[in-house]
Amino acid sequence: MLSELSIMSLKNACKNIFTKIAHQLTNRNNKHYLCSRKTDGCSSVGRASVSKTECRAFESLLPCKQKPCGLFHEAFFVYLRMKVIARIETDFPTKFGLPRQSRLINALQGTIVFEPEFRNVDAIRGLEDFSHIWLLWQFSEVREEQCHPTVRPPRLGGNTHMGVFATRSPFRPNRIGLSCVEIWGIETDSPRGPLIHVAGIDMMSGTPIFDIKPYIPYCDSIPDARSGFTAQIKNTKLRVDIDANIANTMSTKQLEAITEILASDPRPRYHDDENRIYGFDYAEWAIRFSVEGEVVKVVSIARKE
Q1: Per-residue model confidence (pLDDT) at position 94
Q2: Which of 60, 112, 220, 223 has a Cα-to-Cα distance from 280 of 20 to 30 A?
């Protein structure tokens, strides 16, 4: 089996080669379908402008006899077909503290910055007439390569197994997330191209975005939809205790956001240690807190060094 380091090295090597080949492919003969199972038995995962010889060259990079052809070819397919169109800038450098879903905390805001290739104001023409958008993005910090058919949702205590496709777990065959966020501003004359300012985010800063689509109420909203196991989950808000001296060190807007984050209890559901000090970073602040019963006690909020 490949180690995590070997897989990452391979992916980096492949990325460089894919970039070169994507620009050099001119011969349209001897093309074939990318393999998803075996190198000598191709299945129709999708058309790709790459020859069998080029695929064999890629496979020679693999440092083992049992080559993970499916992962290798699917990575190539995704790289050629799925482009990162933008990245989001938020106040979360890590995932801890993020809401479990989008739109749970409207005070959390972010800015969508397009990649240079897509910094064309025409691409967002008409978007100002919509109030919300869907973001299709990548769980870029998930490092585990193997996908299991079941996962243990933290919201169920971490011990109950559910089918991966019955959850929104990041540990999926394709590490793709989906979020609905509110548009609160659009800039069309920024030096970095068009910018979309959004609220209700649930993504860490730098998250790659694959696509943006408008939210359309008449077909996207289903008020009588069933919510499965999530219907039994209580979304109880905790009381947040912040000393006035600590609260006065930050802006009202930041204090509101941090208070809502803590009130939603960012700890894993199976954690219930009143003596444990938890911490996460938000913007320029390092927040440390503990939880006693239904009360969040803020231990400290200090500027990061």
Answers
A1: 92
A2: 112
Cα-Cα end-to-end distance for the chain: 40
Burial class of residue 58 (count of CB atoms within 10 Å of its CB; 0-12, 13-18, 19+) = buried
Which residue type, as a one-letter code, is found at position 288?
Answer: R
User: Residue 76, exposed/middle/buried by CB under 10 A (0-12, 13-18, 19+)?
Assistant: buried
Three state DSSP letters for the chain = CCCHHHHHHHHHHHHHHHHHHHHHCCCCCCEEECCCCECCECCCCCEEEEEHHHHHHHHCCCCCCCCCHHHHHHHHHHHHHCCCCEEEECCCCCCCCCCCCCCCCCCCEEEEEECHHHCCHHHHCCHHHCCEEEEEEECCCCCCCCCCCEECCHHHCCCCCEEHHHCCCCCCCCCEEEEEEEEEEEECCCCCCCEEEEECCCCCCCEEEEEEEECCHHHHCCCCCCCHHHHHCCCCCCEEECCHHHHCCCCHHHHHHHHHHHHCCCCCCCCCCCCCCEEEEECCEEEEEEEECCEEEEEEEEECC
* CA pair distance 50, 30, nearest whole angstrom: 8
pLDDT tens digits along 65-123: 444 444 454 455 455 568 899 999 999 999 999 998 999 999 999 999 999 999 999 99
- The domains located in the chain, with CATH, are 4-81 (no CATH), 86-140+175-225 (2.40.30.70), 239-303 (no CATH)
